[in-house]
Amino acid sequence: MQLKNIFKFNGGVHPDENKIISTRLPIAKLAIPKKLVLPLRQHVGHVAKVKVKPGDQVLKGQIIAEADGNISAAIHAPTSGKILKISEEVLPHPSGLPDFCIIIEPDFKDTWIEKKPIAWKKLDKTQLIEALSQSGIVGLGGAVFPSHMKLKTNQNQTINTLVINAAECEPFITCDDMLMRERADEIIQGSLIAQTILGAEKCVVGIEDNKIEAYEALKKAAQKTLVEIKVVPTLYPSGDAKRLIFLLMGIEVPKEKRSVDLGIQVFNVATVAAIYRYLEFGEPSISRIVTITGAVKTPQNYEVLFGTPLSELIKTAGGSLNKQKKFIMGGPMMGFDLPSIDVPVTKAMNCVIESSPELFPAPKPVMPCIRCARCADACPVNLQPQELYWFSKSSQLEKAREYNLFDCIECGCCTYVCPSNIPLVQFYRYAKSEIIAQDKSKEAANTARERNEFRLARIEREKKERAERHAQKALGAQDKHAEEEKKSTIAAAMERVKQNQQENIKN
Amino acid sequence: MENRSPYIVNAPSVSIIMLKVLLALIPGIALYVLVFGLGVIINILLASLTVILTESVILALRKLPIKPFILDGSGLVTAWLLALSIPSIAPWWIIVLGTLLCIIFGKHLYGGLGYNLFNPAMVGYAILLISFPSIMTHWQIPTNLMTNHINWLDQISIIFNSNVFPKETLDAMSSATPLDYIKTQLTLHQPLNMIQQDKIFGFIGGRGLELINLGYLAGGLYLLKEKIISWHLPVAFLSTLFLTALIFHIAAPDTYASPLFHIMSGGSMLCAFFIITDPVSAPTTPKGKIYFAAGIALLVFIIRIFGGYPEGIAFAVLLFNICVPLIDSLTQPRVFGHK
Questions:
Q1: With contact defined as beta carbons under 8 Å apart, do B298 and B237 qualify?
Q2: A277 with A381, same domain?
Q3: Is A408 on the interface with B (CB under 8 A)?
Q4: Same domain, yes or no: A336 and A375
Q5: Residue ranges of the domains in chain B?
Q6: Per the CB < 8 Å rule, is B8 touching A332?
Q7: Based on the domain organization, do A327 and A433 belong to the same domain?
Q8: For the whole prediction, is pTM greater than 0.95?
Q9: ipTM score assigned to the predicted complex
Q10: How would you classify the pairing of strands B174-175 and A327-329?
């Protein structure tokens, strides 16, 4: 594995990888649980529309909630069974808030709905995107953006490079690594499909140099294709899309622009593999590979049906079912504490880590910032975290915005290297949410002010109109009077003329 | 629920950083003792004791936890730097008073660790220099140059009670620094090469002092290797001082000492690696660090040559400390994806 033609970004950190522990065993299939809990919102965009009602029998792969509009994704039954109810359940989300879920009671027959493979080689781009909009596939790297939308390009956008994100830079997580080792062909095939749909000239896979087996597997699978496998250094956060694009191509995606504006589209390895399976075998998105690792007895990767209670996965891996135990979803750099072990496995869940004081010691007491700027050296966005901290702490929010707070990707590198143990990222999250809230209330105030001004203007206008009408009326009355006078004068004159005439006749 | 990632950290604590700075001072201090005797150790001990006691009292008054802020070691660094900056035979109350000034006026009145605008050691030093110019400019000559050799016990007694020796003895064992000496002799229209024939001059800088500067250089290289300091500050400082001195030296070699003399004399190396590298009072941007250090070097040279004081480091550093917020705001690096 050689690092060739790589463009290094500023900063980044290299924490203990802790990946080997969960790659000793191959991917295993987790058994069908007694209950599946499928959140209607597992993706970015509109909530899926429920198509079933309690009591319905469903088959494996059947759509139970359909995409609502374009930016949305369908939910399919992960196995055959009966719809129990639709209710609010706690979800694996930092907010810990409950949301609506379809609950399925599996019948353990695992009967597939009639699979409809798609002759993708024969279909054109629009038809393929149309087909994929039913697949339920979303970005499995964690962003969960509906994938068919990312394949759609409008007239003035041309994609020349498809980047396949195989970096998997967060410590502990190995779901992509294992997928690459075991199903490299599906990834390469999926990449080629995505490349064809996008009409991209090039397809580059970016993989960190700590995944030798996965690299070899991809290399082999890509042998007779033009897909390029490029090795990037193991340096967190190389898997961040903008960082990966820079590593591979030396292109900085400008602020407030997306990579597609520069003709680059990025897909995660698991996502393209899912695209391939949907088109080739007609299998929609009903499961994913999840790494269960950390303090559990046997860290391993499992293919888990969506909706499976996390406790099942923990139990199988020999983890603690003690309610006091903490579990982290995602990696140790950007993950979050799960609100409960009863949450379901969702499309976004790539890794679950059982926490322990040895793995993740309690944070040390916070000391004052000594402005050592180690954070600035570690920042992959080249921000000045020590300044942002100062502004966030003192609620100088405008200053924080001016110093590009919103460019912060919350990767955690600054906190990782801080000698004063300052939870920097939390300060930035706070400042961002404050600014967003302020902007919203400002906007609301502006709207209210505009409405009020409009109302006042309307009242003023109506008053004026009324006054005008009155004036008009008064004027009209006067006119009438004058006209009558005129009429009577004319009538009198006519009378006189008549009389004169009559007198003349008489004379 | 609060999102408290990242869950892992990997950073040396503030205490470790400060400890390494103290460690890096050891070679310089060892050479100091070798050349000038144990006086400097007494000063370091006095300064350390003063800093611990004063900070404990102030922290208690400010209702702050005492232990973590004593153990962070920043007070000790300030104390040691001041002790190394004053003449080693100065009376004991000079270092005690100086340390008090550093900690009270340089550090805690600004809010303590992390909040000081000025380099605390330089605040103390500048006040001492202005208040007690005579004591602060009478440096001991290397022990091997003394006619009446004094032992370390004598040194200690001089620090605690200067009346134990007759004034003539004291005068015989102290002198102006080489920088100072050149300045005064030049006013007497002596050519530089004659002035530098004096016994207080060594190979490059002052006799003995050049050795200590080498010790600081070694410690500084250790700090660079340990990534405690960034290269920008020492490199910009030393190269600017060197180049400025070089230009003057080429223009008038009889009046201006060689660039090597300048970077190996006075507190040049201490300044380059230990004083301007105080992160709290220095800029944080790479470019800012370069401007800051270069500006200080220029000012140090100007004060050394044209100013009223033999050494200009304290004033130069303090003046540039004022500029730090401005320097930082003008040297913001380009953010990823910005023009």
A1: no
A2: no
A3: no
A4: no
A5: 12-175, 177-330
A6: yes
A7: no
A8: no
A9: 0.90
A10: unpaired
